[in-house]
Amino acid sequence: MAERVLVKHAVAGRLLLDTSKMEGVQYEIGNDGDRIVFELRGVPAETGRDVVRLKEELNVFRFEEPEQGDTIKHWYYVNSGDSTQYDEVSGVLRISAAGEIVYRPKDYWE
To answer: N or C: which end of the chain has fewer CB within 10 A?
Structure first.
């Protein structure tokens, strides 16, 4: 199964980061108490700065893409404040989300 993470500007819909198209970017998803934390490594400085600049208006999506069957879309809500941080020296971008909605097409189209 393939999986990818997208970070988008919520207001304009601008795609800021797509792990399937950015060579060398790796990610892990974990929890910090009641928050979902994305740690993306190998993020180019320009991309990291753009994400942090728009941190008040982010949407994060994760797509599970099985070889057979429908893609499952996860939509994560990012709150304002210190939920997004970028370390330019290490190339690590951390985004903390307060909640998640899972979208399975079969739940809506059958």
So the answer is: C
Which residues contact residue 43 at a Cβ distance below 8 angstroms, ignoring those fewer than 6 apart?
Answer: 17, 22, 25, 51, 86, 91, 92, 93
Strand partners, 30: 37
Residue 44 has a CB neighbour count (10 Å cut-off) of: 16
Question: Hunting for tokens 């993470």 — which residue is that?
Answer: 5
Q: How far apart are CA 110 and CA 92, in angstroms?
A: 41
Alpha-carbon torsion angle 79, 35, 51, 11, nearest 10: -40
CA 43 – CA 17 distance, rounded (Å): 9
**Number of other residues whose CB lies within 10 A of the CB of residue 89:** 6
pLDDT at residue number 74 = 96
Residue range 11-40: mean pLDDT, rounded: 94
As a whole number of angstroms, the distance between CA 74 and CA 104 comes to 9
